[in-house]
Specification:
Number of helices: 12
Strand content: 15-25%
CATH superfamily of the largest domain: PAS domain
Distance between the termini: 34 Å
CATH class of the largest domain: Alpha Beta
Radius of gyration: 49 Å
CATH topology of the largest domain: Beta-Lactamase
Order of helices and strands: HHEEHEEEHHHHEHEEHEEHHHEE
Structural class: alpha+beta
Shape: rod-shaped
Number of strands: 12
Strand order of the largest sheet: 2-1-5-4-3
Number of domains: 3
CATH architecture of the largest domain: 2-Layer Sandwich
Largest sheet: 5 strands, antiparallel
Length: about 475
C-alpha cells in the first residue's frame, strides 16, 4: 500500500506551521461566528423589548381612562384585554401579591399559569425559557391616581423567533466547522507544497557520497528566494568539503608513498643486520627485533591507508573470477598454521562452492579476520573458519572464543582507527584499520560483513555473498 502522507512528526516545521495557522484561523472564524450570533440575538431581543416598554408606558394611561367610567379593577381588566394578543400576556398583582386581573386567552390557561407563579421578574425585559418556550418578561410598578396599586407583569412569546435564531446559529456553527475543515486541508496542502523544496534538498543530500561531493548540485524549480539562497550556501559548503576531502586524500597518498619506501629500506637493513649480526648482544638483538617489528607494522599501516585512499577515490580495482571457496579456505587455514601455533578449525560444505570474487582480496580479508581473532582471544582457544549456504547466500564465518565486543560498540568497529580497547590495541599492535579494510574489500566484491558478539563468549564475523544455485 502506498502511503499518501508520511509519518507525522509533532516537532516538524510543517506541523508547527499548520497548527499555528489553523489555530489563528479557527479562533478568528469562531470569533466572527460568535459576534454574529450575539448581534442577531441582541437585535431580536431589543426589538421586542421596545414593544414591552411601549405596553408598560401605555397601560397606566389606559387604566386611568377606563377608571373614569368604571371601577378601577374593571378598568384594569379592560386595559389588559385591549393590549393582549396571541403572543402577549398581561396580569396585575396588587400590593398583597394577589392576581386581580389577567389576560383571558387560551394561552393563559395552557402556558400562562406557570408565568404567573414567577416571583423574580425584573423591570427590564429579560429572556427566560419555560417548558421549551421563550418569553420576554418584565415587571413594572402600576401607579394609578398617583398611588402604587401593585405590579404589572408583561410576557411576550418569542419562541418562533428564538427557534429560528437557534437554527440559524446551528447552521452557522456547522458551516464554520465545514469551513474550518476545508481550510485545514487547504492550509496543510499549501504548507506541504511550500516545504517540498526543503524535502527535496534533504533527499538530494542523503544521496551525496564522499565521491560525489565535487559534482553535487541541487536543482530546484520555482523555489522561494530564501530556499534558493539556502541551496546556494549549501552548494558552496559542499564545494569546500570536496576541496578539503581532496586535500586530505592527496596528503594521505603522498605521505604514504613517501614514507613507505624509506621504511621498507630501513626494515630491510634491520633484517639484514639481524641475519648477519652474530656478535650482537641479546639486548641489542631484542632492540633491533622491536625496531623491525614496528617498521613492518608501520609499512602495513601505510599500505592500508593507500588501499583505503584508492577505494575512496575509485581507483581500486577488483579482479573478479570464479573461485573454488573450499580450496581457498583450506589454503588460508594452512597459511595460518605457518605463522601461528593457534589451532584453526575448518568446517566446509560437502558440495564444492564456486563463487565469483577477487581471490587475493578475499584471502587478505580472511587473514585479517583470523589475525584479529588470534589477537583478541586466549592462546588455548581455537579459531574456526566456517563455510555455510543459507537462503541463496554463501556465508563465510570466522569464529573465536575471545573477550567479545560490547553491543554499543559493535556498530562502530568497522570505522577507521576505531578501537574497542585502546590499551589492549596498543599492546597487540593493531592500527584500527584492519576491519575497515575488511569492510571495504568485501563490499567492493559485492558482499556484506556483519558481526555477532557476546562479552566473554567470543565473536563471529560473517562475510555474506549472494549465491544462486545453477
Amino acid at each position: 500500500m502506498v502511503k499518501l502522507w508520511p509519518k507525522i512528526d509533532p516537532h516538524s516545521l510543517q506541523v508547527r506551521l499548520i497548527a499555528g495557522v489553523a489555530t489563528v484561523s479557527t479562533m478568528a472564524l469562531g470569533s466572527v461566528v460568535t459576534w454574529m450570533s450575539w448581534q442577531i440575538q441582541h437585535l431580536l431581543v431589543e426589538t421586542h423589548k421596545q414593544n414591552l416598554e411601549v405596553i408598560a408606558n401605555r397601560f397606566p394611561r389606559d387604566v386611568e381612562i377606563y377608571s373614569d367610567m368604571v371601577s378601577l379593577e374593571t378598568g384594569i381588566q379592560k386595559s389588559i384585554d385591549n393590549l393582549t394578543n396571541n403572543n402577549t400576556l398581561l396580569w396585575v398583582k396588587n400590593s398583597a401579591g394577589q392576581i386581580v386581573a389577567q389576560s383571558q386567552t387560551e394561552m393563559m390557561d395552557s402556558k400562562g399559569k406557570k408565568l404567573t407563579l414567577l416571583t423574580q421578574v425584573v423591570p427590564q425585559p429579560s429572556l427566560q425559557e419555560i417548558n421549551g418556550n421563550y418569553w420576554l418578561l418584565s415587571a413594572n410598578p402600576l401607579i394609578t391616581q398617583k398611588k402604587l396599586y401593585g405590579q404589572l407583569y408583561i410576557a411576550h412569546n418569542i419562541t418562533s423567533e428564538q427557534t429560528m435564531f437557534l437554527d440559524l446559529t446551528k447552521s452557522l456553527i456547522l458551516s464554520s466547522l465545514l469551513a474550518i475543515g476545508v481550510m485545514l486541508g487547504a492550509i496543510a496542502w499549501y504548507v506541504r507544497k511550500s516545504l517540498q523544496p526543503l524535502h527535496r534538498i534533504s533527499e538530494i543530500t542523503q544521496s551525496i557520497s564522499v565521491e560525489k561531493l565535487k559534482d553535487a548540485h541541487i536543482q530546484l524549480e520555482n523555489a522561494p528566494s530564501e530556499i534558493k539562497q539556502l541551496v546556494q550556501t549549501y552548494e558552496q559548503m559542499l564545494f569546500r568539503l570536496s576541496q578539503s576531502w581532496d586535500q586530505q586524500q592527496q596528503l594521505v597518498s603522498n605521505v604514504s608513498h613517501e614514507l613507505r619506501t624509506p621504511l621498507t629500506i630501513v626494515s630491510g637493513y634491520l633484517q639484514s643486520l639481524l641475519r648477519r649480526g652474530d656478535n650482537l648482544t641479546p639486548s641489542q638483538r631484542e632492540a633491533i627485533e622491536v625496531a623491525t617489528s614496528e617498521a613492518n607494522r608501520t609499512i602495513q599501516l601505510l599500505q592500508d591507508l593507500l588501499d583505503l585512499e584508492r577505494a575512496d577515490s575509485g581507483r581500486m580495482h577488483f579482479y573478479l573470477d570464479l573461485v573454488n571457496l573450499n580450496n581457498l579456505l583450506t589454503e588460508v587455514v594452512e597459511m595460518t598454521k605457518k605463522y601461528s601455533d593457534r589451532l584453526c578449525l575448518l568446517e566446509l560444505l560437502e558440495a564444492t562452492i564456486m563463487l565469483t570474487v577477487d581471490e587475493n582480496r578475499l584471502k587478505q580479508v580472511l587473514i585479517n579476520l583470523i589475525d584479529n581473532a588470534i589477537k583478541y582471544s586466549e592462546p588455548d582457544t581455537p579459531i574456526t573458519l566456517r563455510l555455510l549456504h543459507e537462503k541463496e547466500q554463501i556465508i563465510i564465518q570466522v569464529c573465536d572464543q575471545g573477550m567479545g565486543i560490547p553491543l554499543q560498540q559493535q556498530v562502530r568497529i568497522f570505522e577507521r582507527f576505531y578501537r574497542v580497547d585502546e590499551v589492549r590495541s596498543r599492546t597487540t599492535g593493531g592500527s584500527g584499520l584492519g576491519l575497515s579494510i575488511v569492510k571495504t574489500f568485501v563490499e567492493g566484491m559485492g558482499g556484506t560483513v556483519s558481526i555477532y558478539s557476546k562479552l566473554n563468549q567470543g565473536s563471529i564475523f560473517s562475510i555474506i555473498f549472494p549465491y544462486e544455485i545453477k
